[in-house]
Amino acid sequence: MMRIISGKYKGKKLVGFNTVGTRPTMDRVKESLFGMIQAYISGSVVLDLFAGSGALGLEAISNGAKTCFLIDNNIEAIKMIGENSQNFTEDLKIINIDYKRFLKTTEEKFDIIFLDPPYKENQMDKALRIIKERDLLNKGGIVVCEYETGEPKTDLKLIKQKSYGPKKIKIFEN
Question: How many Cα atoms are found within 13 Å in the side-chain-facing hemisphere of 155?
């Protein structure tokens, strides 16, 4: 079972664990990840680009992020995010759109960007390139990359990294 692990909504159960195409971040990984980025969260504008169940973006909101954009091109994922975000009073923007289209058309700039794309589809580097080209990350903002294979390629500054078995997390700062 997935849940919000800390902050205002701590303990809230999240649906989506068995949904085809989603690969949720396990609680212990999420706990470690949020420990690493805690200083960046308060008042931030967050982008959860391949949102799936919305667990990462909703965790950020629970910990004091101001706004969160939850983006996924799978309508089932969007429905799940809607269910998981019930009773949230914060500014959530849940959008059913392809990640490239969103990145190429948004006028928003972000403090935290979560990139946890489907592992087999090699979308991480494309997303990083568009984020850089369009200057979508605020100065001092971070990109959190979660992956298993294929190191993320970016000229952003690597500030933290950690492995959890096959899963790896790299955090880059602008």
Answer: 5
Domain range for 34: 2-173
Strands 67-72 and 110-115: unpaired
Do strands 137-147 and 110-115 pair parallel, antiparallel, or not at all (unpaired)?
parallel
Instruction: Give me the pLDDT at residue 25, please.
Output: 63
pLDDT at 165: 87
CATH code at 18? Answer: 3.40.50.150
**pLDDT digits over 23-65, tens only?**
556 777 888 999 999 999 999 999 999 999 999 999 999 999 9
What distance separates the 2 farthest-apart alpha carbons in the chain? 39
Token output for 94 = 């849940």
Q: Which two tokens stand for residue 127?
A: 């997303």
Per the CB < 8 A criterion, the answer to whether 71 and 114 are in contact is no
Low-confidence stretches of the chain (pLDDT beneath 50): 21-22
